[in-house]
Design brief:
Helix content: 25-40%
Shape: globular
Largest sheet: 11 strands, mixed
CATH topology of the domain at 5-261 and 440-483: Amidase signature (AS) enzymes
Strand content: 5-15%
Structural class: alpha/beta
CATH architecture of the domain at 5-261 and 440-483: Alpha-Beta Complex
Radius of gyration: 21 Å
Number of helices: 15
Strand order of the largest sheet: 1-3-2-4-6-5-10-11-9-7-8
Oligomer: single chain
């Protein structure tokens, strides 16, 4: 057994592999051992590809001994993938019974690019069904628990990936973010998570929920970890019509943290009456550290923030209603018999979709129906444009926006089970970035009185992820919150 993998971040693992101090096979075995030891407590994984992972690790080690591919920083490192991203040869259930035992015949572009960079796909992580949820309680295959407190949620919908990284089962994982599904779990689990600019990372192979909102994102322990993953994933893809051809800037993380000349805006609408006091105090303390590092901090206003929740819950369900129409028991997954074709559709969808997915399909179908389209979906798109304009105006004054990720730390499992609206309000601070298409980076800035992680997010201009990495790395150079890990045995 090599040194304790639970102490290693992605950047540390990369350095050790390139220096020849550890092998990919030893690393992969250590990851699998850690998962076997811990995951029964958390249920972060839905599927492990053990044999193929070990075979790939052995092959990579042989290539290293020959002196080939040594320059690849991600070569031979295990990666966990949220189970809404297609990986050829692995199941892709989307946390739903309607895709039980479905195996896609291709691999998502974001995953393939990381494979091309040498990463080993160790397995698939749990998710709210079709990425619809803020707690990973909506998975048809069981809930995932928060590594810091097993009675609490890890966030959602990428809770499995966030929990796997937080519990040191893997050093890196992929997630997706439609309304906060990378940033909120990163906050709840005390890790670093990125939602890129819409169109910066290809959506090809991502099972669609809200097509104008979905983004492929990544989890690591630090901004440096996540930047390594992002730089390999990002770039134009002809298989995704929304993919943008924008250059990826190289990053230099060797400089001392000096933020002189950086302008940070703090939106007054993101500090609400009734939000958890520990969240506000820790985020404001982090903003003060940015100021001490030389950044200019000023209060700004995003006046249409209050409309983000109703806008999102019209736009996203409408798109989901269209995207999920294909799951009919004919083309994918299991089929329930009926007396005729419509009976097959009705029985299969009625019994195989979970409650939250059904709720959103019905809401979206209603919003798109004749006589209601203009009043609901049409109006929501108009207000969405105003939310985007708010950001455009603020970014004339500042370079980056700093604010909380969520109004609370991780909540108890089941606490919002009978109140969908309360669950939706958990995303109040993350939804605007998706509606505007801008990037957001979440990272830990402390703990509340119960020992639960508190996260903050930085939001930037379109395609300005590099600035978010720079600021978060400067903060992480002078703090150690991102190095803390839960005690699991």
């Amino acid at each position: 057994m090599i040194m304790d993998i639970s102490t290693l971040s992605l950047t540390q693992v990369s350095a050790l592999l390139q220096q020849g101090e550890i092998s990919s096979l030893d690393l992969t075995r250590a990851v699998l051992d850690r998962i076997a030891l811990i995951d029964d407590q958390l249920h972060a994984f839905l599927y492990l590809d053990t044999d193929r992972a070990l075979e790939q690790a052995e092959k990579i080690d042989r290539e290293r001994k020959k002196g080939s591919k040594i320059a690849k920083p991600l070569l031979g490192i295990p990666l966990a993938v949220k189970d809404v991203l297609a990986v050829k040869g692995m199941p892709c259930t989307c946390g739903s019974k309607i895709l039980e035992n479905y195996h896609p015949p291709y691999t998502a572009t974001a995953v393939r690019r990381l494979q091309d960079a040498g990463m080993i796909i160790i397995g698939k992580t749990n998710t709210d069904e079709f990425a619809m949820g803020s707690s990973t309680e909506n998975s048809a295959y069981g809930i995932t628990r928060n590594p810091w407190d097993a009675t609490r949620v890890p966030g959602g919908s990428s809770g499995g990936s966030a929990a796997a990284v937080a519990a040191r089962m893997v050093s890196a994982a992929l997630g997706t973010d439609t309304g906060g599904s990378v940033r909120q779990p990163a906050s709840f689990c005390g890790v670093t998570g990125l939602k890129p600019t819409y169109g910066r990372v290809s959506r090809y192979g991502l099972v669609a929920y809200g097509s104008s909102l979905d983004s492929c994102g990544a989890f690591g322990h630090s901004a440096r970890d996540v930047q390594m993953l992002f730089s390999a994933m990002a770039g134009h893809d002809p298989l995704d019509a929304t993919s943008q051809n924008v250059a990826i800037h190289s990053m230099d993380f060797t400089k001392n943290p000096d933020l002189r000349g950086v302008r940070i805006g703090v939106p007054r609408e993101y500090f609400l009456p009734g939000m958890q006091k520990d969240v506000e105090s820790k985020v404001r303390a982090a903003i003060e550290i940015f100021s001490e590092l030389g950044a200019q901090v000023k209060e700004v206003s995003l006046p249409h923030t209050e409309f983000a929740v109703p806008v999102y819950y019209l736009v996203a369900p409408a798109e989901a209603s269209a995207n999920l129409a294909r799951y009919d028991g004919i083309r994918f997954g299991p089929r329930l018999d009926g007396e005729n074709l419509w009976d097959v559709f009705t029985r299969t969808r009625g019994e195989k979709f979970g409650d939250e997915v059904t709720r959103r399909i019905m809401l979206g179908t209603y919003a798109l129906s004749a006589g209601y389209y203009d009043a609901y979906y049409g109006q929501a798109q108009k207000v969405r444009a105003l939310i985007k304009r708010d950001f455009e105006e603020v970014f004339k004054e500042v370079d980056t926006i700093a604010c909380p990720v969520a109004p609370t730390t991780a909540f108890k499992i089941g606490v919002h089970g009978d109140d969908p609206l309360a669950m939706y309000l958990e995303d109040i601070f993350t939804l605007p970035a998706n509606l505007a298409g801008i990037p957001g980076l979440a990272f830990p800035v402390g703990f509340d009185q119960e020992g639960l992680p508190v996260g903050m997010q930085l939001m930037g201009k379109h395609f300005d992820e590099s600035n978010l990495f720079k600021l978060a790395d400067a903060y992480q150079q002078v703090t150690d919150w991102h190095k803390r890990s839960p005690e699991l045995k």
